[in-house]
Amino acid sequence: MIEYIPFIAVVTMIFIGLYAVLFRRNLIKIVIGITIIESGVNLFLIILGYREGGVAPIFTSLPAGTTYPAGMVLPVPQALTLTSIVIGVAVLALMLSLVMHIYRKYGTLDVRKIRRLKE
Amino acid sequence: MSGMSKIVKTSVNILFPLTMIFGLYVIAHGHLTPGGGFQGGAIVASGCAMIVVAYGSKWVFKQIKENRLATFESIGAVGFITVALLGLVFSTVFFGNFLAGSNLLFGTTPATGSTGADFNTGGVLPLMNFAVGVKVIAGLFVIVLVMAYASSVKEWDT
Amino acid sequence: MNNIDVLIEQSPALIIAIPLLGAFLMPLVSRINSTVRNIFGLLVLCLTGFFVGMLASDVLANGPRLYIFGAKDLAVPMVRILFEVDSMSIFMALITMVLAFIAMIYSWSFMKDHDGLDKYYTLVLLLITSTLGMELTGDIFNFFVFLEISCIASCALIAFWISEGEALEAAFKYIVVSAIGALFVLFAIGMLYAQYNALNIATLANVLKYTFLDKIILVLLVVVLGMKAGLVPMHMWLPDSYGRAPPSVTLIIMGATLASFYGVVRVIFTLYGNVLSTTMRFSIPLNVLVGWILITLAIISIIVGVAMALIQSDLMRLIGFSAVAEVGYMFLAIGAGIAALGTPYATTALHGGILHLLNDALDIGLLFLVAGAVYYVTKKRSLDDISGLARNMKYTTVFFIIGLLAVAGMPPLNGFASKFLIYESVYQLNPILSIVAILCSILMLAVFVKVFYAVFMGPELPAFKNVTEAPKSMLLAMGLVAALAIFIGLFPNLVIDALVKPAADALLNHAQYIGTVVGGI
Questions:
Q1: What is the pLDDT of residue B20?
Q2: Can you tell me the mean pLDDT for A87-110?
Q3: What angle do CA A84, A87, A91 make, to 5 degrees?
Q4: CB neighbours (10 Å) of residue C448?
Q5: What is the rounded distance in angstroms from the CA atom of residue C94 to the CA atom of residue C358?
Q6: Which pLDDT belongs to residue C519?
Q7: If you placed Cys at C44, which of A75, A94, C22, C158 could pair as Cys (CB 3.0 to 4.6 Å)?
């Protein structure tokens, strides 16, 4: 049971993020919801690489007696997560600058008052 | 936004060079210890954000024109693609590692197993780390500076 | 000759590297002059088009070609990123290059009066790089990275006219929907990696067993990539974005939409190619289930697209809704091809769907270019404010008539060839679908004839007495697209035998795609 706790945390974070995007009216809260979903997916990618009793996959000053590559955790999911974090930073910067422009144009951050493109 | 008090400015004066050296260390040793281009660049950029908070975005924006930072960023990106194309020329594969195992800049072959962190290894990787680090520093600094400046100006001239 | 062989061998990498280098050099080049910047952009696209052409001539003659990044051979287990180019990929790359070329020529005079144009051209070149990368790659995480790059670049381009509030709102809706969708694609890729320890499409297709998690992965991938292609009920972002972006940008965003459609086709036909005949509950094979779901959603897309286009008064938003209907036709053809896999009319359906990709890109592109020319001359968007333009803009009127007939599927233009193949093959699957498709095609003709009368015929308003014809480079771009449309309409067999038949064969022959990577160790 205890090895399922990280996966339960991932699903909880994704659902909290989806709740914030769907049911909140403030634009900044929608952006925060997207960030929470991204953190959940990154956590999921890192969990996939775990091996019981493994050390970090770095050759500099390994602890004595570690076999490689069997005694290390997998390095490929860490590379995938790093790429995903960089993409998340870029998307977050773009969304926040759009929110700043929208606030400057309309004077409000309420989603229901900004909807001009309706039918 | 305007700057903060004298105490904050003095402590930022002491902390910023330390942050910058630590960030450059993380960029330069990316092929040996955890780190690399993006991670070290983010550390230096957070030091730069510290300066924007302490001295005020209006003053920093007047000192550093945004064009110079954009040029800096382009130089980092062009350097990255140029190193990858040099791999195409010298070892006939795009992104090929043509410096590893040779006697040029970063060319020593490391010993297998647990090593003692020889800096001279890695081939093309430290060069790409530097290029990506320069680009990330310029890019994140521009984002923080322009957002801070734009939220303090009354009227935009778009 | 040896030089040509070396160039062809390195061309998959150069097709990505040259526009990327051009995008990074653009801020430095545009400090010199604006003419130098325009010429530099066109030069980069010409060079890329040259390499795409050479690679096309090689792939269509010799079969799929591999390119491995970073070393000469594949390490075992496969950890290297590789590009695998087969006939379907190179067909999509050719469509993207045509659209990019036309958009660059059109942008010269359409965007001339704006400032911040160095960032505009940088973003356009980045968007072209990421679309080409999506189409050529053979590694599914690499596909995700290029998908995200195209999402960011197209969002920044949709919001380019920041003085209008609606453009900002359309861009914000687009980035929220796309970012959440791309995160779910990453979740599905993580699940694939966890089960099979590989990220390469050919390796995954070789070892895929149809477990419970694979069903979830198929649903996530098809739903998100279908959303980015504009399938109902996930199409809400498409009319907003296409209606508010500058029309030269809309052409390239259409290229990115078609690349997402290519992603759906690649996932279903190649990644799940070996398991498409597994039997599910009630003894229905998987391909029949997936095919009929796609057909249902496609019919709803066609009906919704045409019905919403009838009531619009904003010109570019109306063309956006008709783009949703055209994507519905593409999905109808592909769904029929999947549901009837193995029968001869499935191949006809695939031919019709793939040819419709090319025709739809050209026709809807021509309509957007004409709408852009009307906006440039009159500065008005709504059909209520424009009238009687045919007196002064003769060439634009002729191009609009060609686009109208092509979209509705009239001979001798290109829309007729692909739509006839779709009607013929779908009729043999179920006659009612074909009848609905023909009726909606007639409705689309009605929509655009109404637009033609409102905009070009009718009394001349005093505000428009002195309008001139559109500038020369815009007329040149529209003329090129119209000439291509007429050429494909008059000689469809040339195009089908040369480009479409190898693409359909490459899709159905997933064993050849897998064997290029797995057999070659």
A1: 95
A2: 92
A3: 135
A4: 21
A5: 9
A6: 73
A7: C22
Structure tokens at C361: 């890109």
Identify the DSSP state of C496: I
Using DSSP, state whether C302 is helix, strand or coil. Answer: helix
Report CB contact under 8 Å: A38, C183. Answer: yes
Listed in sequence order, the residues at least 6 apart from C443 whose beta carbon sits closer than 8 Å to its beta carbon are: C306, C307, C310
Can you tell me whether residue C167 is helix, strand or coil?
Answer: helix
Question: Average pLDDT of chain C?
Answer: 88
For residue C459, what pLDDT is reported? 80
Q: What's the CA gap between B42 and B24, in Å, rounded?
A: 10
- Identify whether C459 is preceded by a cis peptide bond (ω within 30 of 0): no
Task: Specify the pLDDT at position A118.
Answer: 65
Comparing alpha-carbon positions, the chain A residue that sits nearest to B143 is A93
Cα C357 to its chain centre, rounded Å, is 7
* Dist CA C250 CA B81 (whole Å): 28
Q: Could you tell me what percent of chain C has a pLDDT over 90?
A: 42
Ranges of residues in chain C whose predicted pLDDT is under 50:
521
* Structural contact between residues C169 and C240, judged by C-beta atoms closer than 8 angstroms: yes
Q: Which residue has the tokens 């690679």?
A: C55
Among C228, C218, C230, C224, which Cα is nearest to C297's? C230
Dihedral sign for Cα A19, A22, A28, A32, please: positive
Classify the complex by whether its ipTM is higher than 0.90, answering yes or no.
yes
Per residue in B125-136, pLDDT tens?
899 999 999 999
Is the Cβ of B21 closer than 8 Å to some Cβ of chain C? Answer: no
pLDDT at C1: 59
* B 75-104 → C contacts, CB under 8 A: 77-78, 81, 84-85, 88, 92-97
Nearest CA in chain C to A31: C176
CA distances from B67 to A90, B146, C6, C431 (A): 20, 12, 40, 62
Q: Which residues of B touch C20 (CB under 8 A)?
A: 81
Domain positions in chain B are 6-109+119-150
In whole angstroms, what is the distance from residue C266 CA to residue C500 CA?
Answer: 16
The reply to whether C281 touches chain B by the CB within 8 Å rule is no
CATH for A2-58+68-114 is: 1.10.287.3510
Number of residue pairs across A and B with CB atoms under 8 Å? Answer: 31
Task: Rounding to the nearest 10 degrees, give the CA dihedral for residues B38, B44, B45, B49.
Answer: 160
Distance from CA of C7 to the nearest CA of B (A): 11
pLDDT digits (tens, 9 = 90+) for B1-44: 778 899 999 999 999 999 999 999 999 998 888 888 999 999 99
pLDDT number for residue C394: 85
Considering only CB atoms, which residues of chain C are within 8 Å of chain A? 79, 141, 145, 148, 151-152, 155-156, 159, 162, 165-166, 168-172, 175-176, 179-180, 183, 186-187, 189-190, 193-194, 199, 240, 243-244, 308, 311-312
pLDDT band, residue B89 (cuts 50/70/90):
confident
Give exposure, B42-64, as e/b (b: 16+ Cβ within 10 Å): bbbbebbbbbbbbbbbeebbeeb
The answer to whether residues B77 and B135 touch, using CB atoms and an 8 Å cutoff, is yes
- Show the tokens assigned to C169: 């709102």
Nearest to C88 by CA among C280, C358, C376, C372: C358
Contact C69 B158 (CB under 8 A): no
What distances in angstroms separate CA C376 from CA C449, C468, C510, one per listed residue? 22, 11, 47
